[in-house]
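Researcher: Let's try something more involved. This one mixes different molecule types, so please make sure each is placed in the same coordinate frame as the others.
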Amino acid sequence: QKEVEQDPGPLSVPEGAIVSLNCTYSNSAFQYFMWYRQYSRKGPELLMYTYSSGNKEDGRFTAQVDKSSKYISLFIRDSQPSDSATYLCAMNRDDKIIFGKGTRLHILP
Amino acid sequence: DAEITQSPRHKITETGRQVTLACHQTWNHNNMFWYRQDLGHGLRLIHYSYGVHDTNKGEVSDGYSVSRSNTEDLPLTLESAASSQTSVYFCASSEREENTEAFFGQGTRLTVV
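Model: All components are placed in one shared frame. Result:
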């Protein structure tokens, strides 16, 4: 079993819709939970990170962590065509960052 | 502004040749990482370093080596390039104390023919 599981998609949604992206993990040692966004032919960039169970909001983005279920989510409100990218969940342990495979998201105008 | 740069951006090489990919960061970060990204596999860790003269193997280290002689640079060497090493390679750096944000380079697209 992979430490971090993420559905690769692609996921296509109309502009303005709420997007839900998810990951599951198996290792209880993970401490920080991160979401990266990667545009085509670019390096990933950090969107946001959380440390504990619960929600964290940043503008149109909300990260949610449920440690009891080993499940994390990223919600995007009022999605825009510029949100079209690959979203990677990531978690760290022992100073290493472990990434999910990424979900390709298309926002349709 | 601080940044992390990779070179070359694109490279084509022949099977069996030794290839070195450069990574240079001006963040003064102790932690540096090399990943490869392939369709269906996501980002996989090749090697990483926590400081000068420190190197460690990641999950897909066979056929690769790194050396860390200073804080700014972590070159990745493919000892004898194989077609299975055709991939996009990303270098990243992060702070030691809070390893929550890694800054990535733009990537090197390597093709082994």
